[in-house]
Amino acid sequence: MSTLLSVENLGIQFGPPENPVKAVDGISFAMQAGETLAVVGESGSGKSVTALALTRLLATPPARYVSGRIEFEGRDVLQLPESQLRDLRGRQIAYIFQEPGSSLNPVFTVGYQIREAIELHRPEVRDVTAEIISALDKVGIREPAKRLNDYPHQLSGGMQQRVMIAMALSCQPKLLVADEPTTALDVTIQKQIMDLLKELKRTSNMAILLITHNFGLVADFADRVAVMFRGKIVETGATAEVLRNPQHAYTRALIECVPKLGQKQHRLKVIDYAGIE
Amino acid sequence: MPESSKTSSEPLLRVDQLKVYYPILGGIFRRKMGEVKAVDDFSFAITKGQTVGLVGESGSGKTTVGRAIIRLTEPTAGTITYGGTVISELPAAAFRPFRKKIQIIFQDPYNSLNPRLSIFEIIGEALEIHFPEMNRADRRERVAELLDKVGLKRAHLDRYPHEFSGGQRQRVGIARALAVNPEFIVCDEPVSALDVSVQAQIVNLLQDLQEELGLTYLFIAHDLAVVEHISDFVLVMNQGKIVEAASAEAIYENPQHDYTRKLLSAVPKL
User: Among A94, A130, A205, A260, which is disulfide-ready with A173 (CB 3.0 to 4.6 Å)?
Assistant: First the structure.
């Protein structure tokens, strides 16, 4: 396996330079081709900012890249000219986000939106319609040919997320960044979407970066996990190892606060932030 | 009959054969072409001080049950009895005293607080309506007390919703429900929009308040792990009907219905 992505000492700040908010504070990690890495942390820990930085999707200002390097297949992302970023965004690194309803354009059909992505990123494709149908079929949408002309509001949240995944996959990216892909969905639909991502992980050589606040989703999905707390990675390791033997107090707390079936406690465990400092 | 002689075996809330149907209108005259049976023949009861969990997927009708209880939705048929009074048929004026006893906490703390009102105004509004004898200073004192109860500070009184995190906003929503000293609270997916770490804090807060104030909850959610934790008794709902009703332990240890098993298997395992 070769290194697909490496992030070294990345620092991203917001707000006034004399009193900055250090959203990402000197983090380093790497991903191999085909690997799944989960970044776990609470709201505000910097995990989404990290995800967006990978293709320089953060608006500058207000964001400032203050330190570090991001290297994707040998290319220095932070130095790339805008023209080359377009190849990176969508084509090499594709995203799915938390709220599929607001990621899709409400005034265009699903087919039109996937077509747009394919025509832009893969001009060599001759039969685009067939490609769209196959993309929808791969994500488990039944009768895909009929769904082409549906508008996003005609689909449920779970189906919308499948369309987002189809759109991301239609560009055959090397890395899929899934930023809280199931947080807005019911647990039953969450399971379906995670099962789909698992299936894609098995059948393709695409690397997946899963961003989540829920340790429950990580267990049987990610090869490795990185735990983020206040802009820093506090722990990283093989998923099974981190779950079995968490080293950092914050990791332990984050694992313990997930309610577990059949282990009724008097009160749920909460994170004792004072104890972590 | 004096209030205290009501035995504890008498349920605080009883729902009998509740039906909520919505018409499907079509054609140029908007005639009724059919109906959606959002809630169909739904019966259950809750004893004072208990928590009944209502679990099901989106579209199963669980929110409609909650809304029918507080009369935000008119039932098509069936009765809702609260403390011995049939409240589902009361005229609006006669129902008003029950609005004080029965409160609701909503799912989305981002959309359920008016962004133009301060925290004092949001919580104080309920006091203005239900306790007209209170003056402004009394109301501020009472709201400050409520903020303290839900883990916020007096200093938050004059802030606006956008200055708070999702978990803090949900605390404001809880304080607003508590303002009128309710007995019964419909908790409609109160933690579904929150991080798991914040979810644990809010669930614990609800349990602490229940212990302290003797509250009765209908706890609506799609996540069986949370419902099992907080509930004494669990109702599993699918397509408008109850498919299984059992104690929280029995639901987990010995699920009877396929749908319950499906919900159980959807909970991520750690």
Answer: A94
B131: nearest Cα among B173, B99, B174:
B99
Question: Radius of gyration over alpha carbons of chain A, in Å?
Answer: 19
pLDDT value, residue A233: 95
Nearest CB among A214, A267, A270 relative to B268 is that of A214
Domain count, chain A: 2
Q: Which helix (H) or strand (E) holds A243?
A: helix A239-244
Chain segment B40-80, per-residue pLDDT in tens: 999 999 999 999 999 988 888 899 999 999 999 999 999 99
Parallel/antiparallel/unpaired status of strands A232-238 and A224-229: antiparallel
Q: What is the pLDDT of residues A220-273, one digit of tens each?
A: 889 999 999 999 999 999 999 999 999 999 999 999 888 888 887 888 888 888
CA B45 vs CA A22, A238, B48, B98: distances in Å: 52, 48, 10, 17
The full set of domain ranges for chain B reads: 3-266
- Homologous superfamily assigned to B3-266: P-loop containing nucleotide triphosphate hydrolases (3.40.50.300)
User: Please, which residues 199-218 of chain A have a Cβ atom closer than 8 Å to chain B?
Assistant: 213-217
- List the domain range (segments joined by +) for residue A216: 3-92+175-248
Most B CBs within 10 Å, among A261, A263, A271, to test the B interface:
A261
A156 and A75 assigned to the same domain: no
Cα separation, B245 vs B44, whole angstroms:
9
CB pairs below 8 Å between A and B: how many?
A: 104
pTM, two decimals, is: 0.86
